[in-house]
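User: Predict the full complex structure for these chains.
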Amino acid sequence: MADGQWRGARPLKSPGQGRAAHKILAGMAVLAVLLLLSVVVPLAAQAVPALNAAFLFGRAPGAIAPEAVNTVTMVAISAAVSFPLALLAGLYRVEFARPSRWTQAFDQFTGTMLSVPSIVVGLVVVDVAVVRWHWPVSTLTGMLALALMNWPLTVALVVEALQSVPGLYRDGSWALGASRWQTVTRLILPLALPQMIEQGGMAVARLMGETAVLIYTAGVNVGPGWALGGPGESLAVHLWLLRTEGVTDLASAQAAATGVVLLGLVFLVLWGSRRLAEWLQDTA
Amino acid sequence: MSSRRQFLQAMGVAGSGVLLGRWPAWAGGPGVRYITIMGATSCISYVKAVLPEWERAHRGVKVAVTGGGSYAGLHALALAQAEIAMADLAPPTSMAVPVRRYLLGRLPIVLAAWPHIGVGRLSWGQAGAVLAGDIVNWRQVGGADVPVVTISRPESSGAREVVQQRILGTRRFSPDSIIQLSNGAVLRTVMETPGAVGYLEATAPMHRVRILGMGSRSFSPQAWRLWPLYAEPSLYVRVQAPEEVRNLAVFLQGRPERQDFGIYFDQRPGQADAR
Amino acid sequence: MRADRIASLVMKGALALFIAVWVMVAVIVGAGAWRFVSANGLVGPLLSSRWSPLAAHYGILAFVVGSMAVTGLALVLAAPGVLALSVTGARILRGAPQRAFIQILTLFVAVPSVVYGWWGLSVAVPLIRRLTGTAGFGPLSAGIVLAVMIVPTFSIMALQTLRQVPSSLVEGSLGLGATEDQTLWHVILPASRAGLSQGFLVAVGRALGETIAVQMVIGGQSRVLSLLKPGATLTTQLLTDLALMPARTPGHDALDFMALWLMILMAVLVWLQSRVKGMSRG
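Assistant: Here is the predicted structure of the three-chain assembly.
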């Protein structure tokens, strides 16, 4: 920041001096980026032999379309259930509840629950839904697990987005005679929505990549057609299964191709949510 | 304070939900019935392969197949979480529910090793010493100079139980073994890891690993009757199970395709023996 | 106003339901853990590493130590990468390249952990095998995989913190004749201590809770700490034994006990985070 912007004052040191550590760190950063790319690039390279229309869209055994459909539907429905519930809870927490020890405790509670490992959520869902309720291992059970683990994360991101709207706006609105409800729906929500959507995209991406919670709730096979009561292997679970126990040459390529499809979906969600957020921000 | 009352009401809703929850009938459509088959991973491929044929003849029944191992399947059967258990083991004596057994056949268990260990055959004693971790380099049994890496399965595995009883006896598996969750995962790890050896149910094609001879015997699918190390995978059904469930068990017991999945049987009609 | 009252009631209901359901989750786990403690004691299982649930040996020491070792290792291995990436992103890059850099890091945050596990099996395990002559499965490999996995998360948080250091501090330091390096070490990094701790705690939480990527490379034995031999963590053992011991079987309570420990650890982390947040405000 210094050298370019300090034209007025006479620099005490010649430009470039005393930046050795910065240069070393920049070099290390290049290495770190290369390391991260080494996760994704070989995956894409290995996927090439398996990436074809029959694998992606075919109906033959081994084709990936049922897993993709399971992933998208389970994530979409569980997100559609948990987002409105979380939005209402978050709105109450920020816009209606008076700040107190209780709201602080609530924030801690939400923070703890959103970082509970997903396998623990799986443990509880298996315990309650599969054992007590006799739900079959199925897409519906998987959705329950995903919605449950998405709930606290979404509450937290809603709270954060609402809190980022300055309090002055609310004071102004109330001073003009608007009710709390009017203030929230007409003023605060439109302002907070872009951030919610962008963060919500990250939450959906997390659900898509979730593996541990689904193995014992949605199962590791697919049925003859999609059904709420049918088995619901997701892309991430399929990748785990193929990579740990697929024994043919093709299985490695198929695992990689599954990973590429999964990454594609994840990036699509991130990109889409960011574009939507930008568009909302521009029109607001 | 009204919010405290509301919170208590919500606790009540959540609590009674946990206690009273049921599978929603609308989720599957009208009149759909569910059968869950659970247990030994070695049977899953076979069951999944022939299941569509039965499902075509029994519309309105949804069958889910999950693994977890023999113990898990038997537990689930006793707790009414599953209708059919696949197991390589006899039910534990502690299991109170009367069950009926449908023997599928004989599932050979082989020792498979990384191809370049320079050893093709082990005596029973050597095999035990290798799996227990007493032999740490293949050189010690006349092979290449490669460290031994043993691959094993979790305690829920029926194959592990057979190997424990027949090869290890009172000794324990090496604490250095790598635990893999399924038969396929053991095979894959043996393939990829230099010096690895593990026990496998001979269900999948095993051409990229070396199948070790045991004592004077060598494994071949044709002479499966002579191979001394095997499990007897069976289906277990509660005695009071509905007709449909028993029908499925009989169907699964009768399909000859299981030979393609490593489950060998004499070519005569199988019989269910009550237990 | 009426709309206000109805809206407030509906929202309060949603909030109460959220709390009730998650308290229920904690109660279910806690009840199992309580049964476990009353049958086996609290200290015994924590000090034993003999895990053989079918024979009623429930020592979880190895898993607790394994979780901590793997997490600690991951943080140590990740630290240089995090420092390099965040300084580069916050103090070296400018304008469009900086925005692109941050977006790329964000994409890596969203890469599913099973993909990192894939990388671990394909790259980390063979590498460790070649370097050490062991099988390659173990806490060291797991630590490497987790390190790569948490680098993007931690780096982004650190980067945002470094950017928020008031420019008056930076320019003051430079104006007094400090070099850029000196400014970085003595002004910028100390000033971002709170934010960095926050990122650190988030990274700890992510590493501690990770299941699938660790399971793929750690080997799965209940052994107290050897970096190169198969080990296990609380989460991977839950995954392994969930099928073996479903609810209402004798060993299931042990799983609840392990799950409760994970929840307690997370609660402590979140409490520390709130302390750190208070620190940066005050």
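DSSP finds seven helices and 14 strands in chain B.
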